């Protein structure tokens, strides 16, 4: 572990109000110390580093000028909030970030009054700020009081439709509120899209300053080069837009761009805006992701997320891997499939690396689409690609696909379009916690008429499912797989096209049948081994499909066993519910079958290791074993003691 940094001024800050005692130059020093403290903390915990380093000065300046928690500071996504947590009474726990029982890696209402609105999914901050501003004006009340509302949103997050829905509404209502556009010219990957190019044009060449009525006077407080920027502003007015920037067209006063690392610009400008704003203001700040830590600044993702690391060298402490990740197996399988079928294309919503599409993008750039943070658009775009005769693989994390759900229903399912949904990060994901858990996709996909829903039990199965999805043209099809490494099974040379709606029995046994859907199969096998020692050899089956169900296999398992237990990494309403429906419809319960369904509990599970989270969910091998014993009415020593 590296020595902790010396932070003499920061040590005098417990809450934002403490910042008010310092001069501007001392605040600059505090920002330096805050950066060192952030680096030091993340080196011990791992987590999102680059975004926080890019907003250190902004964090200090906002807290020094505004009056949190009365003023509501809303960080979009929340992955940049570690410096904010350090300044808002949580420094003593900052080295527990993302650990079990520790601080969340995102903003969280239950954690602090200084987190007025929780986040982790992007592009919600402007809507939230507007809601607070309107509540204030209507005389609403909440913890800490209700003052100004300030959203800080990145150039990546402002690509999502929701941000424009909010600006459209805010411009119309005309309420005083602030949006700080933190433009570091990065998303997780380099940003894509016309909006990104537009923002670049706003600050390309000579910096400029165009202050509207809300911020009149601030110009005189700015350094000389920014005062001269009016010429550039005129170019922009003439060349690109009629009557000002896009933001002005939407009803905001646009201020900027300014250097977001220069406290001598940030502090006076924020003070002026705070004094004078009467309506919605957008302040455009230019920052660097990873600022001030060379290994982060040099990283391709500008240090977006990191394992624990050595501060002097930046070397990350990554555990050696024993098997390829599911994500990479998906990515490679898709590349192989695309080599044989020129209609295969891929869609990602700003997660090209996270979804394993990097190699696909390299090999088939014209067939790979990063649509930016735009899951809704990504789904509908995929639907139309399918309608146009292509074979789109819409690769999204389960949790982010939630945002495109109406599009899944309305544009894909109702039109029976053969979009292939590759659903990554299915189940509990670990350090990102509840906001990123892939808990609901089976429930929300399998209830849609005509949707085929598969879950891979291991990495070989995933390869088969990619081949199956590529071959299936009759309607939409989805397959899900978790974060992290596979179980180490041998990968087949080629994926096999599975028969739709057919599962497989992986072990014959008696008395109890364990029917797994997804990667709990491994834990199920372990539980079965433990049960053998008790004289019970369960049958084990891998359902492969939640929709359509393998009716024959399930009814046979039900007929030939005293108990049937389903296991899945998803919330109630998913695979087990469909099985229960089948059994009920077929009158199987009338014959006395003991049926149990193991699903995620009806609660949001906080961050921990995936294993620990599945313990909380009671879905690991020991708990599967206990469920079997309970269903068969066999008391264990433990249950007798209890
Ligand atoms: C709806 C949604 N889609 C995708 C993500 C994953 N994600 C987290 S941060 C991020 C990039 C955000 O870029 P930006 O807003 O510019 O912030 P920066 O990291 O550059 O500071 C993405 C794509 C998310 N959190 N929410
Ligand atoms: C903040 C955010 O949403 C992403 O950075 C996310 O944390 C990535 O998760 P993975 O590490 O599973 O790719
Ligand atoms: Mg960015």
SSE arrangement:
Elements: H1 24-45, E1 47-48, H2 50-54, H3 56-65, E2 72-75, H4 82-90, H5 125-137, E3 149-154, H6 161-173, E4 177-183, H7 194-203, H8 218-221, H9 224-227, H10 230-239, H11 246-249, E5 253-259, H12 263-276, E6 280-286, H13 294-298, E7 305-306, H14 326-340, E8 344-348, H15 358-363, E9 368-370, H16 375-387, E10 391-397, H17 398-401, H18 405-413, E11 420-424, H19 441-446, E12 452-455, H20 459-471, E13 477-480, E14 504-507, E15 512-517, H21 521-532, E16 539-542, E17 545-547, H22 551-560, E18 563-568, H23 575-585, E19 594-598, H24 610-616, H25 621-631, H26 637-641
Helix pairs in contact: 1-3, 1-4, 3-12, 5-6, 14-20, 16-18, 21-25
The chain binds thiamine diphosphate, 1-deoxy-D-xylulose-5-phosphate (DXP) and magnesium ion.
What does this structure look like?
This protein is α/β, with parallel strands linked by helices and 642 residues long. The chain contains 26 helices and 19 strands. Helix 21 links the parallel strand 15 and strand 16 (539-542). The relative contact order is 0.08. It binds thiamine diphosphate, 1-deoxy-D-xylulose-5-phosphate and magnesium ion (MG). Magnesium ion (MG) binds next to loops. Magnesium ion binds at residues 154-156, 184, 186-187.
């Amino acid at each position: 572990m590296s020595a902790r940094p010396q932070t003499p001024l920061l040590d005098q800050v417990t809450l934002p109000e403490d910042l008010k005692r310092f001069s501007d130059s001392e605040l600059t020093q505090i920002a330096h110390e805050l950066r060192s403290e952030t680096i030091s903390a993340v080196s011990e915990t791992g987590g999102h580093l680059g975004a926080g380093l890019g907003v250190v000065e902004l964090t200090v300046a906002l807290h020094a000028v505004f009056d949190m928690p009365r003023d509501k500071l809303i960080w979009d996504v929340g992955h940049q909030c570690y410096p904010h947590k350090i300044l808002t009474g949580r420094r003593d726990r900052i080295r527990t970030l993302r650990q079990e029982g520790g601080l969340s890696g995102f903003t969280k209402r239950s954690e602090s009054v200084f987190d007025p609105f929780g986040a982790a999914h992007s592009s919600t901050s402007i809507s939230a700020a507007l809601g607070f501003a309107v509540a204030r004006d209507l005389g609403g009340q909440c913890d800490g009081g209700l003052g100004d509302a300030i959203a800080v949103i990145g150039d990546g997050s402002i690509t999502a439709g929701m941000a424009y829905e909010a600006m459209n509404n805010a411009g119309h209502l005309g309420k005083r509120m602030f949006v700080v556009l933190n433009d570091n010219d990065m998303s997780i990957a380099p940003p894509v899209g016309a909006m990104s190019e537009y923002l670049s044009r706003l600050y390309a060449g000579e910096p400029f300053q165009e202050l509207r009525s809300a911020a009149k006077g601030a110009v005189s407080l700015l350094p000389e080069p920014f005062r001269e920027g009016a010429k550039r502003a005129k170019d922009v007015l003439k060349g690109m837009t009629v009557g000002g920037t896009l933001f002005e067209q939407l009803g905001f006063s646009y201020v900027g761009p300014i250097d977001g690392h220069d406290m001598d610009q940030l502090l006076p400008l924020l003070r002026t805006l705070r004094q004078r704003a009467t309506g919605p203001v957008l302040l455009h700040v230019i920052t660097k992701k990873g600022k001030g830590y060379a290994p982060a600044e040099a990283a391709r993702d500008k240090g977006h997320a990191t394992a624990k690391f050595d501060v002097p060298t930046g070397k990350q402490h990554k555990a050696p891997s024993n098997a390829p990740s599911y994500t990479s197996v998906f990515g490679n399988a898709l590349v192989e499939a695309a080599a044989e079928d020129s209609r295969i294309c891929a869609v990602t919503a700003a997660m090209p690396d996270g979804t394993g599409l990097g190699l696909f993008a390299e090999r088939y750039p014209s067939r790979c689409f990063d649509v930016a943070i735009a899951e809704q658009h990504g789904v509908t775009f995929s639907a139309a690609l399918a309608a146009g005769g292509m074979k789109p693989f819409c690769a999204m994390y389960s949790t982010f696909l939630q945002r495109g759900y109406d599009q899944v229903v309305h544009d894909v399912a109702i039109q029976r379009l053969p979009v292939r949904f590759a659903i990554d990060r299915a189940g509990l994901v670990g350090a990102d916690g509840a906001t990123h858990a892939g808990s609901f996709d089976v429930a929300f996909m399998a209830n849609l008429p005509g949707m085929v829903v598969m879950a891979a039990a291991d990495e070989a199965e995933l390869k088969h499912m990619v081949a199956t999805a590529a071959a299936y043209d009759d309607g939409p099809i989805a397959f899900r797989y978790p974060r992290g490494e596979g179980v180490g099974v041998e990968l087949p040379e080629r994926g096999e096209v599975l028969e739709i709606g057919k599962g497989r029995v992986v072990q014959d046994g008696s008395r109890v049948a364990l029917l797994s859907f997804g990667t709990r199969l491994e834990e199920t096998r372990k539980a079965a081994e433990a049960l053998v020692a008790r004289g019970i050899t369960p049958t084990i089956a891998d359902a492969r499909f939640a929709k359509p169900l393998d009716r024959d296999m399930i009814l046979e398992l039900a007929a030939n066993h005293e108990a049937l237990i389903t296991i899945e990494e998803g919330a109630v309403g998913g695979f087990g519910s469909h099985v229960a429906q089948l059994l009920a419809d077929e009158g199987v319960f009338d014959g006395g079958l003991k049926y149990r369904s193991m699903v995620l509990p009806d609660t949001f599970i906080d961050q921990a290791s995936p294993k620990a989270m599945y313990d909380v969910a009671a879905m690991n091998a020991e708990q599967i074993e206990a469920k079997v014993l309970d269903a068969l009415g066999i008391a264990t020593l433990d249950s007798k003691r209890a």
